[in-house]
Every structure is written in C-alpha cells, then in structure tokens.
Amino acid sequence: MGKKLILFFIAVFGGTLAFAGSANAATFLGQDAPTIGQDQVVDGSLYIAGNTVTVAGTVKGDLFCGGQSVEISGMVEGDVICSGQTVNVTGTVTGDVRVAAQMFSLGASVDKSVTVFGQTVNFNQGSFIGFDATVFAETLNANGQISRDLVANAGTLNISGVVSRLVQANVNNLNIANDSIVGDVDYTSSREAEVADGATVASLERTVVTPTEVEPSNPVLMLISGMAYWFVAMLLIGAAILIVKPGILPSASDSIKANPGAAIGWGALFLFATPIISLLLAITIVGIPLAFLILLAWFIVLIVSQPIAAYFVGNWIMAKTNVKWGEIWTRMASLALGLLIIVVLTAIPFVGWLFALTATALGAGSLKYSKMQSKKVKGNV
After folding, report:
1. Alpha-carbon distance 162 to 183, whole Å?
2. Which of 130, 181, 195, 354 could form a disulfide with 111 if both were Cys (CB 3.0 to 4.6 A apart)?
3. Contact (Cβ atoms closer than 8 angstroms) between residue 332 and residue 260
C-alpha cells in the first residue's frame, strides 16, 4: 500500500483523463517544502504535497495538493483539489476549486465554482467566483463577488459583497453588511437575519427552526460508549497487524518521525483524491468494477491508518518512559496508549474532527514513506 499504490491511483486517474481527451503529462512533487517558482511552468497536472506547499508559477492542468500550509499564488489552468490546515488561493484558477481545510482564504478569481469544507472560510474583498459557491464551515465571510448562487451551512454567515442570484443558507447567524448587493435570500435559522440599512436584498425569506420533542438521552453515556467501541475495534485491528505483520506499524511510525509534514500532505491528498478518481472511473461505466476495487483499498487504508497513527503517538511516549516489557508487549502497550489519546482528542467538540483527519492522514501517508525508505535501504546494500 505504499508508493506503488499511490502511483497506481495516479496512473488510473491519468488514464481516465486521457479517455476524456486530455493528453497532458503529470508532475509529482513530495518534499518538506515543495515549491513551484514564479518563472516555472508545469505543462500538465501537478500533484504536490509536503509540510509547506507553494505554487507561484503556472500549472497548465489540474492541481492536486496537500500540506499543513498551502499557498497558491500562480495561475492554474484547470481545477484545484486541495487539503490542508491553511489553504490560501491568491492566483487565478480557470476551473473549479475543491478544498478541505481548517482555514481557507480566496483572494483572486475562480472562473467556475468553489466548494469548501472548513472551520473558517474567507472570500476576501476583490475575489471573484464565476459560477457558484458551496461552503460548510463554522464561519463564512463572503466579502467578494459570487456570480450565481451561494449555498452555505455555517454557524455564522457574514455577507459584505455581491451574490448575484441566490443565497440558500442553514445558519445560526446571518449578517448582511452595508453596501452589499444580494439576490434572493432563503435561509433557515432560529434567529432573524441582521440586514444593514444600506444593503440591497431582492427578497428575504426565513424558515424558522422549531425544536422537536425527542426521547431524552444521556449524551455523556453515548459519547463514552462510542469512544469505547472505537477504541476496542482499532485495538483489535492494530493487535492483529502486530501479530501477523509485526514490522508494519514500527516501520510506518519511523516514517512519520522522519518526515511528518510530507506524511500528512500525501495522506491528505490520498484521502481526498481517491474518491474523485473512483467517481471519474465510474462515469466511464466500464470502469465501475475498478472504481469499486479502488474504493475498497481506500477504505482499508482508512481503517489501518488509525492504528498506525496511534502506534506512533504511543511509541513516542513509551520511549520517553524507558519502560520495557518485551518487544511484543511494549508494542501492544504503545498501540493501546496511542489509541486512548487519539480517541480522547477526537471526542473534543468542534476540533475533534481535525485531530481525526490529522491522524488518518498521518497513517495513510506513512505507508508511502515506509515503502520508499525500505527501497532506499535495499538500494544501498
């Protein structure tokens, strides 16, 4: 499930594009701080991942990126599919933008549509979206121009720009600032929207959220039960790996320790790109069986990635204590300790999903690097 698997996915994706009529080549970059400089031109799709990712040049194709910090200030003549902790797009994109990030900022022009899953999303003043924007976030600040529709599911939606046709939102708070120009607004909320006197709104229609009576439940008990179930399930999977293939978890853990940023970047790229590849294959009809197999492999990696990340965390702590119970029992203890920490962190409200995503990306990305490192060792012998 290492380098060969990732290259296999990329090859399948490239073959699907070729089937659709694209003949461009693909470029792959994976380092701690991979960079496409201002004067560089990538003639084809670009796959880039690392701790800090910078794309300041021109990409004549689609851009697939993943990292802790991603800066896209160049020209992308295609789609952008990206994931990271912070993603900033200040360059022109001629296609669509699809992003999953804790914080996303758009400060330039996107010719087609934008879809974002994040915590804080900013469409800055001067930004332009040619088609539609779809956002799932805690806070969305729409300060630029959206040519057609804005669909939002957010805690707070602040509009101080232009939405030409329709705003459809499910929010707690909706604020439309002075000088905003908005078409029809259809929103669902328990609170009235705050619309400034100087705002221009074609129509404003609210659907009131009414609480429904449900059987009372104990949320704490439900949370503890879910945590216990996930802990036991992942412990059994991790223990089975340690017994059947005892070298997998330590090798993957060493890969994370060697380059955590690149592991997260490649892992995040794998997590988000694989379903898209499968969808493109399924569209061709004849590719449905292969799409199913790819999704199956993707699901297996998702499951295995949790014990890998847990072992890394637990092993790091156990190494500090100098406790030794024999190799197999020390490894089991590292796995259990790491799983306990990850389960608790992922249960934290509002930010737990970020810990879960990071752990999954670490585990998935480490498989690539453990395979690369083993090949380097064999090559040096």
Report:
1. 9
2. 130
3. no
SS3 state of residue 107: coil
How far apart, in whole angstroms, are the C-alpha atoms of residue 202 and residue 181? 9
Render pLDDT for 75-132 as a digit per residue (tens, 0 to 9).
999 999 988 889 999 999 999 999 988 899 999 999 999 999 989 999 999 999 999 9
- Would you report the helix, strand and coil content of the chain in percent, each value rounded to 5? 45, 35, 25
Q: Which residue has the tokens 């794998």?
A: 270
Question: Which tens digit of pLDDT belongs to each residue from 340-363?
Answer: 999 999 888 888 888 888 888 888
255 and 3 Cβ atoms separated by less than 8 Å: no
pTM: 0.60
- Extract the tokens encoding 131: 């088609």
Identify which of 118, 127, 133 has the alpha carbon closest to the alpha carbon of residue 82.
118
Residues 6+ apart with CB under 8 A from 125: 143, 144, 160, 161
Residue 127: how many other CB atoms lie within 10 Å = 23
Euclidean distance between CA atoms 309 and 22, whole angstroms: 38
Distance CA 265, CA 127 (A): 26
Q: Are 112 and 128 in contact (CB under 8 A)?
A: no
**CA atoms within 13 Å, Cβ hemisphere of 243:** 6
Q: Is the pLDDT of residue 10 over 60?
A: no
- The beta strand positions in 197-355, using DSSP E, are 200-208
Q: Which residues lie closer than 8 Å to 17 by C-beta, 6 or more apart?
A: 24, 45, 280
Q: Which residue has the tokens 């003639």?
A: 43
For 32-44, the pLDDT digits (tens) are: 788 999 999 999 9
Q: Are the beta carbons of 348 and 231 closer than 8 angstroms?
A: no
